Amino acid sequence: MKKALIAATLLLSANAFAQKKDMTPKMYDLLIGTYTSGESQGIYVYRFYTETGKTAYLNVAEGVDNPSYLAIGKNNKFVYSVNEVGDDRKGSVSAFSFEPYSGKIALINKQPTTGAGPCYIAVDKANKHAFVANYAGGSLSVLPIGKAGSLGAVTQTVQDQGSSVNNDRQAGPHVHTAMLSPDEKYLLYTDLGTDKINIMKHKSGQDQPLTPAEPAALEVKPGDGPRHLDFTPDKKFMYLLTEMTGTIYAYSYDGPKSKQLETVSIVPEGFKGKVGAADIHVSPDGKFLYASNRGDVNEIVVFSIAPETGKLTFVERKSTLGKTPRNFVIDPSGNFLLVANQDSNNIYVFRINKQTGKLNVTPHILTVPNPVCLKFTPAE
Predict the structure, then answer these.
(1) Where is the signal peptide (predicted)?
(2) How many domains are there within the chain?
């Protein structure tokens, strides 16, 4: 009797596991932010299949001014974009309703950011606030989000001050990212112009949810130019990519008390050309780190991550097969990496070898004008 009971229990557990496994999405909606100064119509939506890497066109949101960075809102029902404009005009952000699977996307409203050149947007899990990095204006803007997904007027602005050693690129502040920590206790925003990762305490639901942490910043080597961040899935480690020197800073993550572990260059030894490091992502299993470099190389550089120490070991360099890999994304299954080549108007799909981290070219290519941001959201 006992043996039969154990067998029945094991069978139920196996069935439950199988059902849970079967619930993992095999289809995602791929949203593509672009620059509309050329032939792009706005935000493009494609279906993406995680087993094959194939894509299928669904929709486009037209008439959006330079939606160069996107964020997905609560329950995948809303999409938010920056409207990136330069120094001569104030920037803005837009809110959209979104229907997963059909890919239907429609404008809800638009709000000024009170800062020039917004280039990055993040939304908290509760869908209470949007956080916007104004690159040209050197500021961070906070906008409330209504229950129906609309954006309210800016309720908090954090204006950075200062400069650094490169007179051409760092004469003033240039805020590049606005990323919430995995537990959302902090908001971290990079400033290329002052060579800092600034850290703010975050309390959701308040009109002004940000206050300076103590210490309020992590500093990097002058002239490096901090750009993008990512975390390992276990939240133990954080990685910063600097744009101007192509340096990765590895940290043991603990909010404002994070400790630097090492620095690693993504630039080939002896390289004398132009460096333009852009994006950085950790694989969903936490085993590998990927970073893109624009400039004169146009490649993805791959590192393995030591699980206990967070330190990096070089794996390979891979051509992105196009010009200016501004942004890339790893699909949630970890099977594929997609690279947005801004200046060659294409998106290449690479298959990831989950044992080695290496990238293999697939025949799947999307032709999209000036793609600069890729985001996934479940389609089923």
Answers:
(1) 1-18
(2) 1
